[in-house]
Design the sequence.
């Protein structure tokens, strides 16, 4: 693990968050906080409510109760585009790319917050507009080189290999210049080589000062990468702590390791 | 340097193209042909407008005939009753259709997919019934006649006075070129990209910070105002407006042109508008069969060429590219797939 | 006056209800709006007209019209929609509009554009109901509609095929997995919905006449009724059709007859915005 500047400032605070679907409590009175610059992992068995939690944090679905704060700002009732504007970006469990776009175009979409969408400058092609476009495209170039996709920039994103599609999604999220990056099972379905490469990428992203909240099943990944782990089950927090603490915790062993087969 | 020269050639090509287009009336003496060509130009405006919404933003309207009608009626009413000239009715109509488009978009775009289609259908029908029944203002089923042509335009060297069909051609062509330029500027901007993102995946777009609803409403407004402009041009060109021009069939015709040309493509819009207009005019020789063949063509296109003419073109282009690539790789073990995979990031 | 409007409304409403059933049934299995449904209504009426012209008795002509409508719906699906199962919804929509154009203009070629009256054994007789003189054909329309609704209700809930149709509307893939032939279910759905739609056209033929574009507004109204009742909800479509007919009839009688067609469109807009799940629908939680 890199030596990095771990802080105690909470970048994201989830307090008493609840959501039920037709009587089933997907997330139940959940509270935890993510510290700035950490890689924070959320683990738990399938159906534990992890993806629902992400959808609640990013404003895709509204919670029934509870609060989400970004630093000290209450973002609970904001739309997902407003939340992105605050500096929270994400990837999706089932990769969601734009089917008709190349890799470059896809990542360029992520620069929306940078370029804006003002109509008058676009129609007049003002100097500021052209400068913005140039900066955005340069930024896309940097990001694509950073994630290692520069050589395939003109290919259709949806036609890339699974691992590279995931990279495109991460690149697109990075283009929004997030402070907090939410990754929903980014290594699901990857082979060990791809997983290893992605883990290196996450570390590199984290070293750029971006806090990562990651949902993962791969315990090897979680133990290697994360500074802090929150285990949830049935939408409730089971336990949290560092990898060492979690691995030894009997409740985790019983509820998680005991049931779900883990590949090392 | 290379690409600068290329850009220069492109500009030169465009200039020659526009000049050639301007020459068209010189070669055509039959006023009916000129009429059809002008009609095509008006349809191109409509199709460009609707394509911004359907092709680039993924939101479907079958009520855009109403915006066309509103533009035409505003031009008719303001010019015949208040004596305003074309150069005043045009901005008024654009503004009015933009405002109405904004309101309809604001209400309707809360709905998705089929439900939006239904809502725009209802809106279009209501507006058509208003044209038909608000006799005091719209002239009822008779419509409004004697709409004046645009005032004479003096360019120093020559004067453009609108007495015959060919005179309208440069004016209409000018607006079509302006519309194409605006469309291009729009789609190649942050705004245009965000629309395409919404079309492809709304949720992902919103998660990247794009305000989906607002973007859709703005595009709806712009799209409506294109149709408003087309309506004003139509009214001053044909000199008569009546309700049956702006019924459901018109909305469907515009949408069909978008689909047949190929969504999300300016060339497609031009092709769709041109071919369908020519086709339908050519079939006037067989009036009984005209609409029947027209309908059949639509069904066949949708069944076998879902992405319209542009879809066919890009299919063949890809096929040719693939063949060329295979030829290049012939002899080696390489195949197209290997080439793709070979460009990995390691 | 009020009672008159009410009876007119119920008659109109019966027709809308019958039309709405076609839209709703198709929506149920394919999640798409069959914009050519209004033309089935027209086609059925014309076939009945021709059969009668050839000397067939009324009941036979009506039956032939209905069967022709069912066949038309079946063929539409078999020849076009079936080939487009994986196509985008927008393409299906445009194809349906294309079919509508083809059918309207074929009718014009075959039968001409001038409206014709379909014969009815009851049209010239009035019946006295509590001092009110009501046209017997109106009563006939209402009775036939009620019978059809009971038959449909029976078919959907009491027969194996009806249950398959219901299952298909829940989840067509799952239905397939359970060994039900989805293609057969879809064909039957189109045939029944279209047959009922054609019946609606035949029933109004003696009152509102038969002509190639008769299906356009009838289609829009039937479609509005299906949205009012909640897309996919058959009993809802029936009740909503009646409501729409009565509302429209009163609006035309008391506000302005020119805007009578606008009533349905305004209702459609209001329902879509305020209650897109329909008057009788329940809100379905959205999945992300």
Sequence:
């Amino acid at each position: 693990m890199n030596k990095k500047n771990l802080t105690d400032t909470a970048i994201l605070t989830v307090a008493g968050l609840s959501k039920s679907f037709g009587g089933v409590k997907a997330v139940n009175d959940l509270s935890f906080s993510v510290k700035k610059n950490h890689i924070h992992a959320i683990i738990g068995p399938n159906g534990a409510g992890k993806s629902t939690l992400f959808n609640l944090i990013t404003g895709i679905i509204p919670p029934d109760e509870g609060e989400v704060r970004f630093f000290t700002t209450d973002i609970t009732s904001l739309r997902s585009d407003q939340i992105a504007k605050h500096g929270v970006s994400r990837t999706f469990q089932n990769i969601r790319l734009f089917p008709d776009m190349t890799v470059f175009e896809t990542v360029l979409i992520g620069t929306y917050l940078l370029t804006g969408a003002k109509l008058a400058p676009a129609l007049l092609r003002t100097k500021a507009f052209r400068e913005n476009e140039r900066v955005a495209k340069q930024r896309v170039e940097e990001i694509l080189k950073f994630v290692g996709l520069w050589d395939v920039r003109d290919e259709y994103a949806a036609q890339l290999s699974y691992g590279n599609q995931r990279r495109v999604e991460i690149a697109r999220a990075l283009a929004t210049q997030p402070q907090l990056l939410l990754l929903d099972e980014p290594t699901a379905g990857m082979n060990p080589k791809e997983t290893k490469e992605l883990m290196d990428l996450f570390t590199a992203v984290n070293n750029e000062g971006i806090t990562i909240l990651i949902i993962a099943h791969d315990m090897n990944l979680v133990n290697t990468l994360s500074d802090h782990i929150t285990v949830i089950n049935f939408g409730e927090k089971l336990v949290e702590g560092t990898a060492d603490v979690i691995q030894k915790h009997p409740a985790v062993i019983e509820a998680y390791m005991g049931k779900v087969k883990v590949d090392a | 340097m290379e690409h600068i020269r290329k850009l220069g050639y492109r500009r030169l090509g465009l200039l020659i193209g526009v000049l050639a287009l301007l020459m068209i009336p010189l070669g055509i003496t039959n006023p009916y042909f000129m009429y059809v060509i002008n009609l095509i130009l008006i349809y191109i405006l409509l199709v460009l407008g609707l394509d911004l919404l359907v092709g680039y933003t993924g939101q479907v309207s079958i009520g855009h005939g109403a915006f066309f009608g509103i533009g035409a009626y505003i031009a008719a009413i303001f010019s015949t009753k208040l004596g305003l000239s074309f150069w005043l009715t045009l901005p008024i109509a654009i503004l009015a259709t933009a405002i109405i488009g904004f309101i309809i978009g604001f209400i309707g775009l809360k709905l998705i997919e089929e439900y939006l289609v239904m809502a725009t259908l209802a809106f279009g029908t209501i507006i058509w019934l208003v044209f038909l029944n608000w006799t005091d203002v719209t002239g009822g089923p008779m419509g409004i006649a004697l709409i004046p042509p645009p005032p004479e335009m003096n360019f120093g060297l020559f004067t453009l006075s609108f007495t015959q069909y060919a005179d309208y051609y440069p004016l209409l062509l000018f607006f079509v070129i302006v519309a194409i330029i605006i469309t291009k500027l729009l789609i190649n901007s942050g705004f245009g990209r965000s629309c395409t993102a919404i079309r492809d995946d709304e949720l992902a777009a919103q998660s990247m910070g794009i305000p989906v609803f607002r973007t859709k409403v703005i595009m709806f407004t712009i799209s409506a105002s294109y149709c408003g402009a087309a309506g004003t041009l139509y009214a001053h060109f044909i000199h008569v407006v009546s309700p049956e021009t702006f019924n459901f069939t018109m909305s469907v015709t515009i949408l069909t042109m978008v689909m047949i040309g190929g969504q999300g493509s300016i060339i497609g819009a031009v092709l769709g508008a041109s071919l369908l207009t020519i086709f339908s005019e050519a079939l006037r020789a067989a009036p009984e069969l005209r609409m029947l063949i027209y309908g059949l063509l639509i069904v066949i296109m949708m069944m076998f060429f879902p992405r319209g003419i542009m879809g066919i073109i890009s299919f063949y282009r890809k096929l040719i590219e693939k063949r060329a690539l295979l030829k290049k790789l012939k002899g080696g073990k390489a195949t197209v797939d290997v080439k793709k995979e070979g460009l990995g990031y390691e | 006056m009020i009672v008159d409007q009410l009876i007119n409304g119920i008659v109109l409403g019966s027709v809308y209800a019958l039309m709405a059933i076609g839209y709703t049934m198709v929506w149920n299995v394919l999640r798409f709006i069959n914009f050519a449904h209004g033309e089935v209504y027209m086609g059925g009426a014309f076939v009945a007209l021709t059969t009668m012209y050839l000397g067939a008795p009324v009941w036979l002509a009506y039956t032939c019209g209905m069967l022709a409508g069912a066949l038309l719906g079946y063929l539409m699906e078999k020849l076009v929609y079936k080939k487009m199962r994986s196509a985008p919804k927008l393409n299906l929509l445009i194809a349906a509009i294309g079919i509508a154009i083809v059918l309207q203009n074929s009718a014009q070629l075959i039968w001409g554009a001038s409206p014709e009256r379909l014969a009815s054994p009851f049209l010239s007789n009035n019946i006295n109901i509590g001092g009110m003189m009501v046209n017997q054909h109106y009563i006939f329309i209402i009775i036939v509609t009620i019978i059809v609704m009971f038959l449909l209700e029976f078919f959907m809930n009491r027969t194996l095929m009806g249950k398959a149709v219901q299952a298909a509307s829940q989840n067509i893939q799952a239905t397939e997995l359970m060994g039900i032939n989805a293609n057969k279910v879809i064909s039957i759905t189109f045939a029944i919905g279209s047959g009922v739609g054609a019946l609606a056209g035949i029933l109004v033929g003696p009152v509102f006449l038969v002509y190639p574009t008769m299906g356009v507004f009838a289609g829009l109204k039937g479609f509005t009724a299906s949205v009012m009742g909640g897309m996919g909800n058959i009993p809802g479509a029936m009740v909503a059709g009646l409501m729409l007919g009565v509302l429209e009839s009163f609006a035309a009688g008391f506000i302005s007859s020119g805007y009578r067609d606008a009533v349905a469109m305004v209702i459609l807009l209001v329902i879509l915005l305020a209650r897109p799940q329909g008057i009788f629908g329940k809100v379905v939680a959205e999945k992300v």
Q: What stands out?
A: Residues 262 and 308 of chain B are 4 Å apart (CA to CA). The interface with chain C takes residues 54, 60, 62, 107-108, 110-111, 113-115, 117-119, 121-123, 125-126, 129-130, 132-133, 203, 248, 252, 255-256, 259, 288-292, 294-299, 302-303, 306 of chain B (CB under 8 Å). The two ends of chain B are 31 Å apart (CA to CA). Chain B has 15 helices and two strands.
